[in-house]
Amino acid sequence: MRVVVDLNRCQGYAQCCYASPEHFVLRGHEVLFYDPEPPLEKAGEIERALQACPVRAISAEFSDTTDGRVP
Ligand code: SF4
Q1: Given this model, what pLDDT does residue 64 score?
Q2: Residue range(s) defining the domain that contains residue 17
Q3: Which stretch of DSSP H or E encloses residue 50?
Q4: Is there a domain that residue 47 lies in?
Q5: Global confidence as pTM
Q6: Which of 51, 57, 70, 71 could connect to 10 by a Cys-Cys bridge, CB 3.0–4.6 Å?
Q7: Which of 7, 46, 55, 59 to mutate to test the pocket of ligand 1 (most atoms within 8 A of CB)?
Q8: Over 60: is that where the pLDDT of 42 sits?
């Protein structure tokens, strides 16, 4: 699956980091690092992170993209 965070929109609220700490990490107060290709079995966790973001900065495509093809 693919995850994209609009870093211009992200305000560093860290709600995604609580929902999915393996895939979203806030360094300092406002620099977000994230996994752009988390495994599909983490879809529930990623969905919770997506829903938790108060500014809707996270978007995700919930399909298996491990074969390297761009959907
Ligand atoms: S919850 Fe949203 S605003 Fe907060 S750090 Fe995550 S992406 Fe950024």
Answers
A1: 67
A2: 2-61
A3: helix 43-52
A4: yes
A5: 0.85
A6: 57
A7: 55
A8: yes
